[in-house]
Design goal:
Layout (H helix, E strand, L loop, with lengths): L10 H4 L5 H5 L1 H9 L4 E4 L4 E4 L2 H10 L23 H8 L6 H11 L5 H22 L4 E3 H4 L4 H10 L6 H10 L10 H27 L6 H11 L5 H32 L3 H6 L3 H15 L6 E4 L4 E3 L2 E3 L4 E4 L39 H18 L4 E2 L5 E2 L7 E2 L3 E3 L10
Parallel strand pairs: 2-7
Antiparallel strand pairs: 1-2, 3-11, 4-7, 5-6, 8-11, 9-10
């Protein structure tokens, strides 16, 4: 194994992302894990942890490890194709865990659906809805940002941006909360299976929406764009459309809820001169969000990969099926990687910008996610220029994947903005 930890406590004692200590101070634990070496055995999860950014980026780019959940040594048996549920058909047969060639095909043919032109058109659809959300809020003295704003953004995204009709919202909203649990190797089999049933139900709805859309096309949402791409590109099938929509609804909405909380918290917790810099343009916010994510260190785990065979990897002998977690957030407060890491600077240079991955597995929906976030945060500060934290938020330890807040109470200080009589 990596350089032996002689006279050091067991790794599980210095790094435990589900501990109360990590919830309050993840930085010290992340640094302690990174100090153990480039590839560290983490006994509690029976997994190797990749700690260095150069190695992580090389792994993203060259893909020497498998991203197929069923290649994990502790995964349930891979079902035969004739027994696939909707979820297995999406997970195995299409773009989530498809073979490399098909994954690259999906990325190539769907790139126009994520272009700047498409993002601008989608902005025109969701911006009025975000304004309406704030108009309904009014001017309270205090409010919980998570309850009143953040929780409503997935509805706007799914109905206006993706193109799922509002009538399906009550049935599909559960998958927002559970989709990323479907392949999380650190939770119980029962929890994963429950999440998969949520996804199966969501896929039934998506298939019904696709059938409706084929008979009555709409031209200006993400689903319509994917249906046009399907017609024009051999090899891109309805299953790929379902998988991409499911990922946008599930993974996209889940990560957006986390991003909403931390963006507001970070901008209010630090020097207020950072707010105008961050929100000057969509491009400036793209960079600012990298800094928000770096400063906040909200991640609990990394990106899971699995050894496809017994193999030598980074100087270690990996058994087939063992999990390898890429942990890019460990670098975020490392002074050898970032100068003055304790300082919050939205103009900090990120080169390369690997927040949404790198290489063939770069998150294809990153531009959509960042634009949606920019519009919401901009509207918040436009309406409440003197807004501030009403209290230090309490961390919520129930989220399996990220450090989040139970509530985020804000003081609007509207009286300070009104002209004095």
């Amino acid at each position: 194994m990596t350089e032996p930890a002689k006279n050091l406590p067991p790794i599980g004692e210095v790094f435990n992302p589900h501990s109360p200590e990590y919830m309050l101070d993840p930085v010290s634990q992340c640094l302690a894990l990174a100090e153990r070496g480039a590839l560290v055995w983490y006994e509690p999860w029976q997994a190797w942890m990749m700690t260095r950014m150069d190695d992580i980026m090389a792994c993203w780019k060259t893909e020497p490890l498998s991203s197929d959940f069923y290649d994990w040594e502790f995964a349930p048996p891979r079902p035969p194709e004739e027994e696939w549920s909707n979820f297995e058909r999406a997970l195995i047969g299409h773009s989530l865990l498809a073979d490399h060639d098909h994954h690259r095909l999906v990325r190539r043919v769907t790139a126009p659906a994520f272009s700047r032109n498409v993002v601008d058109k989608i902005q025109a659809k969701i911006e009025p809805e975000i304004r309406k959300l704030f108009e309904e809020l009014g001017e309270p003295e205090e409010f919980d940002y998570i309850e009143k704003i953040a929780f409503h953004i997935p509805f706007i995204s799914i109905t206006r941006m993706v193109g799922i009709p509002e009538k399906y919202w009550p049935q599909i909203k559960q998958v927002i909360m559970t989709f990323t649990e479907t392949w999380n190797p650190t939770i119980s089999d029962e929890q994963r299976e429950s999440a998969r049933q949520d996804s199966n139900q969501a896929i039934d709805i998506i298939k019904e929406v696709i059938a409706e859309r084929r008979s009555a096309p709409v031209q200006d949402d993400f689903l319509s764009t994917l249906l046009r791409i399907e017609v024009e590109n051999e090899g891109f099938e309805e299953g790929d459309i379902i998988t991409l929509i499911l990922a946008l609804i599930g993974a996209g909405a889940d990560t957006t809820l986390v991003a909403q909380q931390w963006s507001v918290y970070a901008l209010l917790k630090n020097n207020r001169d950072q707010i105008d810099k961050a929100l000057a343009t969509p491009e400036s916010f793209t960079n600012a969000f990298c800094e928000i994510n770096r400063w906040g260190v909200s991640s609990k785990m990394g990106f899971a990969r699995y050894a496809p065979r017994d193999m030598e990897f980074m100087g270690e002998r990996l058994r087939k099926g063992v999990m390898v977690l890429m942990m890019p957030h460990l670098k975020d407060h490392d002074p050898s990687y970032f100068e003055n890491p304790e300082q919050f600077d939205v103009e900090r240079v990120f080169e390369p910008d690997a927040l949404f991955g790198y290489g063939p597995r770069f998150c294809i929906g990153a531009a959509l996610a960042k634009r949606q976030l920019y519009l919401t945060i901009s509207e918040l500060f436009k309406r409440f220029p003197n807004i501030d934290l009403a209290e230090e938020p309490t961390r919520d330890d129930t989220d399996h994947n990220a450090v989040v807040f139970k509530r985020l109470m804000l003081k609007t200080n509207c009286a300070l903005s009104r002209p004095q009589s």
